[in-house]
Design a protein that fits this description.
Layout lengths: L8 E5 L4 E2 H13 L3 E6 L4 E6 L3 E7 L2 E2 L10 E4 L4 H6 L3 H13 L3 E4 L3 H6 L7 E2 L6 H6 L3 E2 L4 E4 L2 E4 L5 H16 L5
Parallel strand pairs: 1-3, 1-7, 2-4, 3-6, 7-8, 8-12, 9-10
Antiparallel strand pairs: 4-5, 11-12
Helix pairs in contact: 1-6
Length: 187
């Protein structure tokens, strides 16, 4: 276990329909590097996870409502995918505000699969280079992004990946980029 993210608080914005592996693996990598993570969601209680969007895959306890969350509460933000999860988030004013504020803050944000849908709704992809699940790439282009088909893309504060097959590279890039923001390099 490394400690490069010791003292870092990472918000994980997710709701029902989140792709379990896209929340579990990055959260594990972040916690393994010393970060504290909190699931921020639309409702109290638990959120229902999915596997391949179709199969029930257990639940995650919610730590905080997005309506009560502020960018100042976190050092970084993770936006996992699944189709239903970001589709619901992008329809919620508080979730969109939270994502917009996070991107405006310059703090690091990581998103995988369908997660960038919420970034598009927050008008936070214009002029950015990123990747995503293939089915939302037209939406991202229409929102002003330069979309590429790569395993991991880092554009300033933003780290994106295509889907579950890219999780090893995504997790490594997330920890690296979040550590850079947490401990800026001198000079």
């Amino acid at each position: 276990m490394t400690h490069e993210l010791q003292g870092m608080r990472v918000g994980i914005l997710a709701t029902d329909g989140v792709e379990r592996v896209e929340l579990d693996q990055p959260r594990g990598a972040l916690q393994g590097a010393g970060a504290k993570t909190e699931i921020v969601s639309l409702h109290h209680g638990e959120i229902q996870a999915r596997q391949f969007d179709l199969n029930a895959a257990g639940t995650f306890p919610v730590d905080r409502l997005v309506a009560d969350a502020s960018v100042d509460d976190y050092h970084a933000l993770l936006l996992p995918g699944g189709t239903m999860n970001p589709d619901q988030l992008r329809m919620n004013h508080d979730a969109v505000r939270f994502v917009r504020d996070f991107m405006a803050s310059g703090k690091p944000v990581a998103s995988i699969c369908h997660g960038p849908w919420t970034l598009a709704e927050a008008d936070a992809v214009r002029g950015r280079r990123l990747t995503s699940w293939p089915s939302i790439r037209t939406d991202l282009r229409n929102a002003g992004a330069e979309v590429v088909d790569e395993e991991v893309v880092v554009d300033g504060q933003l780290v994106t990946s295509r889907g579950p097959a890219d999780l090893p590279a995504f997790c490594a890039a997330v920890v690296e980029q979040f550590a850079r923001a947490h401990h800026p390099m001198p000079g």
